[in-house]
Amino acid sequence: MTKSEIISQLLTQKLVVVIRGNTEEEAYKASKACIAGGITTIEIAYSNNKASQVIEHLTNDYINSKNVIVGAGTVLDAVTARMAILAGAKFIVSPAFSAETAKICNLYAIPYLPGCMTLTEITTALEYSCELVKLFPGGTIGQDFISSIKAPLPQVKVMVTGGVNSGNAKEWFQAGASAIGIGGEFNKLAARGEFEKISTLANEYCTKLD
């Protein structure tokens, strides 16, 4: 799958679940539960020190599935980005823009989604060939920010993360988001071992946004 094909699939699926997990097993089971519920784009956060193992395991599980995309989040540097890519990550997400991370992702033809809060950060990301940028934290920036940035930059596509939940997800799309990153609700359930409820919640998101 090419870089543009991955971006196209992310934009088609629209929902990205950010899975953290306190352990490798918790993150793995939570990811599987999300996929079973219908959300098939999973971002494994490197706040979990077993993230590479989780990415590799999931990549192997779904190697023949065209719908499941496993990426890496909370990637703070190029070294971590390369580790994630070698483990099988199909996209890299950072809380802030990193030029070195952008370069390593371009080298491996992997989409890089950096967190941005200002027009300067967004235009810098575009200059480094980022086709989709992450607006983070969404709850702080607010929905009106999307229309504000699209006035001078109508070509920019954004994924909103932070402050997005089942109650306001549809509103973010109406405001102009191309995709949303969700996770808080899912990770709370995972910490309690309530994986069946994760599948139910994932299905609810998919149903609401159909």
Automatic annotation (TrEMBL):
EC number(s) reported in the record: 4.1.2.14, 4.1.2.21
Pathway field: Carbohydrate acid metabolism
Keywords: Carbohydrate metabolism, Lyase
Molecular function GO terms recorded: 2-dehydro-3-deoxy-6-phosphogalactonate aldolase activity; 2-dehydro-3-deoxy-phosphogluconate aldolase activity
Cross-referenced SUPFAM superfamilies: Aldolase (SSF51569)
Record's keyword annotation contains Phosphoprotein: no
Classification via PANTHER family: 2-DEHYDRO-3-DEOXY-6-PHOSPHOGALACTONATE ALDOLASE-RELATED, 2-KETO-3-DEOXY-6-PHOSPHOGLUCONATE ALDOLASE
Record's subunit section: Homotrimer.
Family: Belongs to the KHG/KDPG aldolase family.
NCBIfam families listed in its UniProt record: eda (TIGR01182), PRK06552.1 (NF005119)
Annotated protein name in UniProt: 4-hydroxy-2-oxoglutarate aldolase @ 2-dehydro-3-deoxyphosphogluconate aldolase
Species whose genome carries this gene: Streptococcus pseudoporcinus
Name of the gene this protein is made from: dgoA_1
